[in-house]
Amino acid sequence: MRFLHLSDLHIGKNVNGFLMLDEQRYAFEQITRYIENERPDAVVIAGDVYDRTVPGIEAVRLFDDFLTELASMNVTVMIISGNHDSPERLNFASRLLSDKKVFICGAFDGAVQKITMNDAYGDVNFWLLPFIKPLSVRSFFEGCEANSYGDALAMVIDKADINDRERNVLVSHQFFTRIGITPERSESEMDPIGGLDAIDTTLIERFDYVALGHLHGAQKVGAENIRYAGSPVKYSFSERDQKKSVTLVELKEKGQLNITLLPLTPIHDMREIKGEIDVLTSKEILSQGDREDYMRVILTNEEELIDPWGRLKSAYPNIMGMTIENSRTRIDISDIAGSAEDAHKLSQYEMFGEFFLKSTGSVMTEEQTNIVRELMEAEGEQ
Question: Are the beta carbons of 158 and 115 closer than 8 angstroms?
Answer without folding.
Answer: no
